[in-house]
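Our platform keeps sequence and structure together, in a single record for each protein. Nothing more is needed to write down the fold, since each code stands for a local backbone conformation. An entry from our holdings is shown next, in its original layout:
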Amino acid sequence: RYEFNSDEELYIRLSNGGVNYDLLQSSALITPFLIRDGKLQQLNLDKSPSVGHFDPKHLNLFFDPANKYTIPYQAGSYGIVVNTGVIDNPINSWKDLWNDDYIQRMIMPDDGRPVIGMSLLTLGYDVNSKNEEQLKSAQERLGELVPNIKIFDGETPAVSLLSGNVDLGIIRSSYVPDLQNENSAFQYVYPSEGAILWQENWAIPSTSRHVDAAYAWLNYTAQGNVAWLVLRDYPVTTPNLAALEYASQNEEKYYNNYMKSTVTNIPPEAWLRGHFVLDVGEATTLYNNIWAGTKGEQ
């Protein structure tokens, strides 16, 4: 087992060929690259009947039409977290973060794409814009937000939020349920311009040496009584309907908590209004420069 710190690290390790993996988890952003460069093998769905367990809205997505190479594992979003115990202003949109009341009170993930993406959205632009003028405007807009940002941290945001070091910001949804369990004053907001969505997926590398074992693992972990354990221990959005069915019949308290939470049980309208970050090709350099500049201004 190996845990990757980024999509780039995953791609480099697969490309170097020094290590062989039988299964991997790929994001919506990196999957098209892996498919294009022959790093994944096509799935034999006859060997993976568990695909029938999944919610259709998590299947046949842009990064893998017809799910020829991937099976969904877990999903979620980037939205706005607010400590309503100390912040009275209503926050309903990304634009609401640009407020002088929040100077040095905000946390952001250390990831340029969702942050630049939300800046583009406030200007009415596509979250994956390749237009240089639009990106320049988004950079200028972020520059206006920088005085409000105290911390860039995408790994342990709850520490700063619970300590009161910061009071609001952008957060990955997977951190929110535990945060709210510690302090119910924290609210998670799906901005009116649309949240930034993410989905992680199972895939079998083209170099896999134990393909039958990989299918056995996929089918085992997709069983409702197994898949729900992931939800119990890691509060994310599950694409696996069998997991929810099992929990509804055997873990009623857990199931009710999951379903009543708009963080884990993403409202359909929030999912439909959300945005996935995509490969932007040569414009990646522009995004990287914007992000370096934004962090440098902090």
The CA atoms of residues 228 and 271 lie 21 Å apart. The chain has a mean pLDDT of 92. The beta strands are 24-27, 70-83, 106-108, 149-152, 168-172, 186-189, 196-203, 275-276. The chain is about 40% helix and 15% strand.
